[in-house]
Amino acid sequence: MTAQADDHCTRCGACCAAFRVDFHHSECEASMAGGVPLGLALPLTATLMRMRGTDASPPRCAALAGEIGVAVRCTIYASRPSPCRDFAPYAALGMGEDACDRARVRHGLAPLGG
Ligand code: SF4
Ligand code: SF4
């Protein structure tokens, strides 16, 4: 998710409930101020962390609040890890990409398209 205001992403949230979200442990609050809260991530390897809930079945990130496809919010928006910051950067403006569209379709939402 890339957005914070009222836009396509805050009315969606599908990507936060579709893919595993893994990131380097240096992005955790233990390693940097303002990093990902440790309670929301699990160690995956010696160097990788995974957002809690993203490998559940069905997946849903523990940091996601709200109802997918209606109104959602990343509760750690300012501290979200790099995969979330980098994901479909123009989706909030209505310009999706393949992974964004796949996530939306998985949740019964129309793809944004490019
Ligand atoms: S799936 Fe696409 S539109 Fe939906 S929240 Fe993620 S980036 Fe935004
Ligand atoms: S950290 Fe935030 S943006 Fe990233 S998957 Fe979780 S709810 Fe979505």
Topology:
Elements: E1 22-24, E2 41-43, E3 48-51, E4 64-67, E5 71-74, H1 82-86, H2 98-106
Antiparallel strand pairs: 1-3, 2-3, 4-5
The protein binds iron/sulfur cluster (SF4) (2 copies).
What attributes does this structure have?
114 residues; 12% helix; 3-stranded antiparallel β-sheet; two-stranded antiparallel sheet; alpha+beta
Proportion of helical residues: 10-25%
Name the strands of the widest sheet in spatial order.
1-3-2
* Number of beta-strand segments: 5
Contiguous helical run count: 2
Give helix and strand order, one letter per element, not per position: EEEEEHH
Oligomer: single chain
Rg, rounded, reads: 13 Å
Report the structural category: alpha+beta
The small-molecule ligands in this entry are:
iron/sulfur cluster
- Count of all domains: 1
| Uncertain parts | none
Name the average pLDDT.
94
Strand proportion, as a percent range, falls in 15-25%
- How many strands, what sense, and barrel or not for the largest sheet? 3 strands, antiparallel
Explained architecture:
The protein contains two helices and five strands; from the N terminus they run βββββαα. The longest helix is centred in the C-terminal third of the chain and has 9 residues, at about 100-105. The mean pLDDT is about 95. It has helices at about 80-85, 100-105, and strands at about 20-25, 40-45, 50, 65, 70-75. A hairpin with a 3-residue loop joins β4 (about 65) and β5. It has one domain (about 10-105). The protein is α+β, with helices and mostly antiparallel strands. The strands form two sheets. Strands 1-3-2 form a three-stranded antiparallel beta sheet, with no helix packed on it. It has a two-stranded antiparallel ribbon with strand order 4-5. It is about 10% helix and about 15% strand. One iron/sulfur cluster binds near residues 21, 51, 61, 74 and 76.
